[in-house]
Amino acid sequence: MNFNFSPEDEAFRLEVRQFMQENVPPDIARRAAVMYPPPIADFRRWQKILNAKGWGAPHLPPQYGGTAWSPIRKHIFLDELYKADGIDYGWQGLHMVAPVLVAFGSEAQRQRFLPPMLNGDEIWCQGFSEPGAGSDLANLRTHAKLVGDEWVINGQKIWTSDAAESDWGFFLVRTDQTVKPQKGISFLLVKMDAPGITIRPIEAINGGHDLNEVFLDNVRVPKDQLVGEAGMGWTYAKYLLEKERTTSAFLYFNKRELERAKESAWRERINGVTLIDTPDFARKLARVEADLHALEWSVLRILAGERTSHNADAVVSALKICGAEMQQRVTELQVDALGARALRFFGSDADTLHNSDAWPADVPGKSARFLFERASTIFGGTREVQKNIIAKLEFNL
Ligand SMILES: Cc1cc2nc3c(=O)[nH]c(=O)nc-3n(C[C@H](O)[C@H](O)[C@H](O)COP(=O)(O)OP(=O)(O)OC[C@H]3O[C@@H](n4cnc5c(N)ncnc54)[C@H](O)[C@@H]3O)c2cc1C
Questions:
Q1: Is residue 244 in some structural domain?
Q2: Closest residue CA from atom 21 of ligand 1
Q3: pLDDT, position 298
Q4: 81 within domain boundaries
Q5: 37-41 average pLDDT score
Q6: What is the largest CA-CA distance in the chain?
Q7: Is there a catalytic annotation at residue 325?
Q8: Using a 6 Å cutoff on CB, does residue 379 contact ligand 1?
Q9: pLDDT tens for each residue of 289-344
Q10: Cα 69 to averaged position of ligand 1 atoms, centre (Å)
Q11: Which domain holds residue 177?
Q12: Lowest-confidence region among 255-264, 283-292, 313-322
């Protein structure tokens, strides 16, 4: 078996690397390295640069702006993008709702919504979770009624990332109370400045304000902003969540940040000994690195289309668990390596203090990211729920 990339793929890697070197604006790279999430204005700017190159959404079919790259090339591309501190494609927009519009939306919806999404002109949020409907999403109560040519929505969402800065949101709403819970849900596209929407930020443990409560009070949405068929929202949401979890190995982030943990460990000293030479730290680092290699090979096996004897849902759930735990382990290594200096809280000054004498490049933002990553085993489906899915694994030997 040949484990190397083909010469053509290696040439592609060099092409992408050169593009990143020449095109990631240094101020965007600096902020992307220390702030999470990076400012939306940076995301908009960077997305325009990618789109101008024709790389606005490699994962979509070519007729909707995709690149027709092989899965391995998409892997190489993201690897290089992260290494250069470029910003990943918008999670809720390009990763989530775009594939749903391609698969289930009308042609008019694709033409209306995909171009501004690819160009960073319109930002999206995801209105699924509610108080009382997180893991048990089918329990959602926000409801919509068709009145004339409009859906009228009432209810509340919570944990809606980026709601306050988004132009559009995709919402799961109950449109039929008379059928079993999963059957009566619909998928609506909602303009976030529509009358009747109130957005209230929730301050997170890392100091971020990107999470929100969203209240919907008689919000009117034109009938043609329903995706697919009424009552089929659960099917579309499952499709979307599966896509979310496939990308949830967070491989590229984990690889880049492990390298940064090593850089810190090569510089920091304890009682005159370089941290990397202390057995406890070296052992912990080696364990994380070995597991990260294993995760990368698992992702590559899936990208290479290897047939698996396990059912696909279980594989995706396993990747989600390993990737989420890996984010926690890598960021923990970073704060371990920085010792007491990791206790300094960096808010919006993470950018300006970056790489000063007192605070070398690897310090700002690390503790905030470490704190944020406590959530990685919650969002996109909690670890326990993923384990339930794996427990129901079917063998097709
Ligand atoms: C940072 C962050 C960003 C988010 N962004 C968004 C967003 O943009 N849009 C959106 O719609 N949602 C978002 N969410 C919400 C996220 O999807 C939910 O938090 C998640 O689905 C869990 O739901 P919950 O918080 O209601 O917890 P619950 O479902 O109430 O779970 C509480 C605990 O019980 C456990 N549990 C629940 N059910 C079971 C079971 N059957 N078996 C075993 N254990 C179980 C869980 O694992 C968890 O430990 C975000 C969450 C976070 C933390």
A1: no
A2: 134
A3: 87
A4: yes
A5: 90
A6: 76
A7: no
A8: yes
A9: 999 999 999 888 877 775 555 566 777 888 889 999 999 999 999 999 998 888 87
A10: 34
A11: 124-231
A12: 313-322
264 and 383 together in one domain: yes
Q: Check if the beta carbon of residue 99 is closer than 8 Å to that of residue 240.
A: yes
131: domain CATH number is 2.40.110.10
Residue written as tokens 């989530």? 96
Q: Can you count the helices (H) and strands (E) in the chain?
A: 12, 9
Report phi then psi at 307, rounded to 5: -70, 140
Q: How many domains does the chain fold into? A: 3
385 lines ligand 1 (CB under 6 A): yes
Cβ partners under 8 Å of residue 66, min gap 6: 57, 58, 59, 60
> Quick check: CB of 382 below 6 Å from ligand 1?
yes
Cβ contacts of 134 within 8 Å, gap of 6 or more = 159, 382
**Pick the catalytic residue: 244, 257, 268, 373?**
244
More confident residue, 357 or 161: 161
CA of 136 to the centre of ligand 1 (A): 8
Residues 255 and 226 in one domain: no
Ligand 1 pocket check for 159: Cβ under 6 Å: yes
Ligand 1 centroid to residue 238 C-alpha, Å: 15
